[in-house]
Amino acid sequence: MKWLDALPKNRRRGSFPRCLLFMDGDRTAVADNLTKLVGLPDVYVEAKDFWMPQGLPKPKANGEWDTNPIEEAKLGDSIGESRRFLSDDQRKEVTSWWLAVSERANTPNWDIASTCTVGEKAGLLLVEAKAHTAELKKDGKPLDKDASAGSIANHEQIGRAIDAASLGLKQAMEGWKLSRDSHYQLANRFAWAWELASMGIPVVLVYLGFVCAKEMSYLGEPFVDCADWSRVILEHSRNIVPERAWGRDVKVGSATIKPLIRAWRQEFS
Predict the structure, then answer these.
(1) Do 119 and 200 meet the contact criterion of CB atoms below 8 Å apart?
(2) Exposed/middle/buried for 31, CB within 10 Å: 0-12, 13-18, 19+?
(3) Which of 4, 39, 62, 227 has the smallest number of CB atoms closer than 10 Å to its CB?
(4) What is the pTM of this model?
């Protein structure tokens, strides 16, 4: 697969190339795959929706590769195609909620993001994808010893944002314990889902396990099937995300968060 050579060396195995393969194809096929992945009767993605990444790198006439299609989504006040997920005002709102100093700082990347319809409302489908156990991180958010004043301010702001999300989610359902200082990756995913829902945007948050990623066995156990992946993510999120939240609507203001555990076998060789 020559397109793999266009990817950074550390991203040629595991979940990243599988996400690109999953999102590659004509627009109707990709929309159908995303709808099938969610698997709920009131959630659907259509060919007219917008999503990122947009598939595999594409060969150019000069023999080089166009890597624009592989760009991952950001929902904050960024540049490029990511600006299509939210309005200008919404991007500014989520960025100021997350960052104290936006200059030279970033909001989180999403493995897959797509606009979608939830019920009769415009919503967002956000996907966090894994292919082996080593991709699940328990660490807190790092902060360098020689961090700048802006980085320190952002570190503190992100902590406040996650704390607010955890408190807000507790109002809908007991048992949430999101933290900047432990399982940061998990915490920021649910914090962002909560903030978007607080803005009236329904969110479908999918934790996607790509099963049978055998090439990754040297780093961590690949997931065998959906039951295995579900067991792993439930254990990973224990005492942070209430188990009963998975697969249910979590009401936040006028919108909902739908946290889902899904598995997919994406052939890759």
Answers:
(1) no
(2) buried
(3) 62
(4) 0.96
